[in-house]
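Before the break, one more example. Copy the sequence into your notebook; we will annotate it together after we see the structure.
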Amino acid sequence: MEWIVANWQGILAAVTGVIAAASAIAALTPTPKDDAILYKIRQLIDLLALNIGNAKNK
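Here is what the structure looks like once it is written out:
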């Protein structure tokens, strides 16, 4: 817990970077409908990008 408190800025920057990267990937890639594995990866990217509700790509 002490490590988290001491390094909260770096952790926040890393989490923000992951969300930003996932958002960019989700926005740039088309939705695969015929490939189940890529569809699952796409769902994970959408989840990491916080693409939920009306923000989700169709």
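Residues 2-51 form one domain. The longest helix spans residues 8-28. Try to locate both features in your own notes.
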